[in-house]
Every structure is written in structure tokens, then in C-alpha cells.
Amino acid sequence: MSASPSDIQHVVQNSLPIEEATVSAPAAPDGFFAQFAGNPFFTGGLGLAGFAAILAGVQKGLRQGASLLKRRLLVDVDINVKDDTYQWFLYWMTIHHRRQFSTANQSNPLEKVGIIESLLRRFPTRMHHLSIATSKTQLPNGAVQTQFALIPGPGRHILRYKNAFILANRVRETKSMGLNNGNPWETITLTALYSQRHIFETLFLEAHELAQKSVEGKTIVFTPRTASWEKFGEPRRKRTLESVIFDEGVKEHIVADVKDFLRSEQWYYDRCIPYRRGYLLHGIPGSGKSSFIQALAGHLDYNIAMVNLSERGLTDDRLNYLITILPKRTFVVLEDVDAAFSGRTMSDESGYRGANVTFAGLLNAMDGITSSEERILFLTTNHVERLDAALIRPGRVDMTVRLGEATRHQAAKLWNRFYGDIDENGINQMRFLQALEELGIVQAEGQESAKAANVASTAALQGLFLKNKHSMEGAIAGAIELRRS
User: I need a surface site. Which of 195, 309, 408, 411 has the fewest CB within 10 A?
Assistant: First the structure.
């Protein structure tokens, strides 16, 4: 039985959707990883993560490449605030910028220079971060002179030195303070091309020479601060030995002994003797004890470290430590040592009580087991009879010198210093010495060994001459004032 055309068409129409559905149906996933691979969110995230990893790798590579390039092409030098070079470099940097600025303003228009050099001179490196440094100096009349100076402050500075560019980065740590003085911790990092690293040695030598010139002909005075030594004001102009007038032979004897000690370092070491020496200068006030120490320091190119034993907070340990870290080529000076322990009770164990520094602590600092070597110590006092015998025994005090009342020799020398240029024949000097004899202040010539009835210090004589610096007659007439000084 044959199918009609309408039946065939009906069968075809009914079978088409089944074929289409069979063709369009996707194949089922075969495994676990295949399911993730077919997830568009997973594949998109994986792509982003891969891209981020590539960027991180590139960034790390660039950093390492830059670090490697910096190590290959650049060189750094670090200077911390505790190093002496720190202050030398700051001072050098200030002077260097001043010189560059002055050169740029005073350049010769007729001088032939290259284009690059011309541009560098036209646009010199300048400091844009500055700090102020204040120093105070006490004048002899008691007035205080204040000076201000601008120095490179924290931050980055660009220097040009001998056709080389240097980046100076001064960093101040606000959270880190020095234990000794409480000042912020600071460092300076200098960066230059590795091929130009040799300029650092030249720069530091120049900075050192500049620092030495700034104190040339001057004596630095140090005072203790917490657990370190600091400069007290500006360096003093060196005083000559000739400006201090003692009786005949006294000054020369002390100077010869100090010089012999400085030459005998190996002699002390060979005999296992501690290499240190102590001097006691005693006498009436105004006899020139402190003046001589200052003049001797200037003569030997030494500095002075002043210690006040009555200072509040100065303990035995701190005193011992300060003397141990004494700056090189520096005298230790303990002035008026008798007053430091006056009016205090004795203790069997620790010496005098009532002071931050005990008497036993002072003795240990002078020659105890922990006391320093390569040291010259000066003690001064107006009342040697008040000093304990343990303080001035040999080993602690090796030489005792009395600087007494003004003698005929000292009065004549002082007169010549003030009036020698106008008293050519010395007649007025003889009149002045005769007046001193009549007042019983000095002995007659040839009788200097006898004790004078009245006493006057060399400081009193100098005060009289200063008061009458333009009048010899006034000095002669005012000699009677010395009797009451």
C-alpha cells in the first residue's frame, strides 16, 4: 500500500526537530580539569593572574636591574654624626657653595670656555635646604657675642666638585636619639659615579685641611655634657708663653718637664709605668695659674678639657668615663679642686660624702685601674693646705709648683710690656719699683729672697696698668692701690 504525498510530508516535518536537537546538543565533559577549562570565569581569572605575575616579574627584574646598574655605575659613602668627618664635611660644603656662587657672579666675560662649562657656570648648584647654627662666645668683659651661620640642612643637595657631580643626602632620624647628648641621629650619604670615586679622598682631605685652618692659631676648650665632650663656645685665640710672666725660671721648668714627658712615651711603656702625669699649681688668686695652662696648651698645640667637680649630676662613673674618652692632645684641668669637697663630712669607705663625685671616685679617676693613659692633668688651688695628702701624692701629682705673690722681676717685666715703648730709658720703671719697695710689696734689688711685708698678685699689677694704660704717672701714683688689693 503506497503512502500518499501528504503522509510523507507529515513524517519529514515530524523528524526534523529530532535531528536538529541531536546535532546541536554538546558533548558531556570527560574529566575534572575539563570542567574548569570549560568555565569562562576560571579561564578569565587565570589569565589575569598570569598577567599580574608577568608584570610583577618585570617590575622585580627592573628593580634588580636598576640595583645592579647602580652598583656597577655608582658608589655611596656614608658618614654618621659621631664621625669627626661629619662636621668637617658640613663646614666644607658651606664654604664650597659660597665659592661657587662667588665664582658664578664674578666670572670673566672675556674668558673662553666651552658651551657646557658656560651653562654650568650660569646655573650653579645651590642649596635649598638650610639649617642655622648658633654659637656664643663670652668676651673678657663678660658680654656674650652671638654668631649665626647657615649650613646644609636635612634633604638632598647636588654638588659639583672637580667636574664631578655628587648627590649629598642628609637624613635626620626623628625617632632615634643619641644616648650621650640627646641629639637626633644623622647621616650623610654621598653618591657619585663609580669611575669618579677617587674624588672622595681628595674631598675629605680638603675638608680636613679646611677644618684645621678654621682652628689654626686657636685653642679649643671642651666641657662635659652627659657622657661626651663638647666644644665650649668658639675656639680661643692661642695665648703665647711670653704673655704669662712668672718669677725667673719657674715657667721654663714646667715647660721643660712637660716636653720631656711627651718625648718619653716609649720609656714609660718599657718600664710598665702608666703613661700619665699630673701637675698642681697653687698660689694666691690672680697669680696666673689658669693663664699659664692656656698659654702652655697653645704653645704645645694642645686643647683644654675643663671639669667642674661640683657639677650636679657628675658621678664617679661618669667622671672616669669622661677622662677615658678624652680627645687627643688635650689637657685635663680641675680648677679650684679644694673647693669641690670643702665643708663635707668624711666617710671611711667612699671618701667625702655630700657630692655627686666622691673623693674616692676622684682618686680612682686619676690613677685607678680603669683610669686612662696618655694624659696630662692639671690641678689648681688657692689653698694647698686644704688638700688631702692622698690627692697630691706622687703618681697622682708628679710636680707641685707654687705661683706666689708678684716679685720685683715680675713687676719690671709687666712694666716693660705696657710702657716699654714710651719709657725708653727706664727711669719711670725705676720710680715705680721704688714706690713698690716703699709700700712693702716687693723687696729691694738683691734681697728678693726675703718675704715682702705686703703682697700683690700679678693680676692686680696688670689691672693697675690697664687702668692707666696711657699714663705712666698715673700707674706710679696708683701703686698704693696694690697695697689694698
Answer: 195
Residues with Cβ < 8 Å from 315, sequence gap 6 or more? 356, 357, 361
User: Which set of grid coordinates corresponds to residue 207?
Assistant: 675638608
pLDDT, one tens digit per residue, over 82-109 is: 888 898 998 888 888 777 666 555 555 5
SS3 state of residue 295: helix
pLDDT at residue 271, as a whole number: 92
Distance CA 165, CA 162 (A): 8
Query: In degrees rounded to 5, what are phi and psi of residue 345?
Result: -80, 155
Q: What is the C-alpha separation between 200 and 88, in angstroms, rounded?
A: 13
191 and 166 Cβ atoms separated by less than 8 Å: yes
Distance of CA 443 to the CA centre of its chain: 49
Q: Which three cell numbers stand for residue 481?
A: 692701690
Torsion region of 66: left, alpha or beta (phi above 0 gives left; psi -120 to 50 gives alpha): alpha
Alpha-carbon distance of 274 to 370, in angstroms, equals: 11
274 versus 39: the higher-pLDDT residue is 274
For residue 4, how many C-alpha atoms fall within 13 Å in the half-sphere facing its CB? 3
Can you say whether the dihedral through the CA atoms of 454, 458, 460, 462 is positive or negative? positive
3-state secondary structure 132-190: EEEEEEECCCCCEEEEEEEEECCEEEEEEECCEEEEEEEEEEEEEECCCCCCEEEEEEE
Q: What is the pLDDT of residues 179-233, one digit of tens each?
A: 555 678 889 999 998 888 888 999 999 999 988 887 888 899 999 887 788 888 7
Cα dihedral sign for 285, 289, 292, 294?
Answer: negative
Q: Tens digits of per-residue pLDDT, 375-427?
A: 999 999 999 998 989 999 988 999 999 998 888 999 999 999 999 889 888 89
CA 279, CA 450: separation in Å to the nearest integer? 27
Q: 53 is written with which cell numbers?
A: 605575575
How many other β-carbons are positioned within 10 Å of the β-carbon of residue 105?
A: 9
Q: Is the alpha carbon torsion for 80, 81, 83, 86 positive or negative?
A: positive
Average pLDDT over residues 60-86: 81
CB 38 within 8 A of CB 29: yes
270 vs 234, residue with greater confidence: 270
CA-to-CA distance for 465 and 410, rounded, in angstroms?
13
What single letter denotes the amino acid at residue 59? Q
Q: Are strands 346-347 and 351-352 parallel, antiparallel or unpaired?
A: antiparallel
Helix (H) or strand (E) holding 324: helix 316-324
Output 139 or 276, whichever has higher pLDDT: 276
Q: What is the pLDDT of residues 196-207, one digit of tens each?
A: 888 899 999 999
- Residue pair 405/284 in contact (Cβ under 8 Å)? The answer is yes
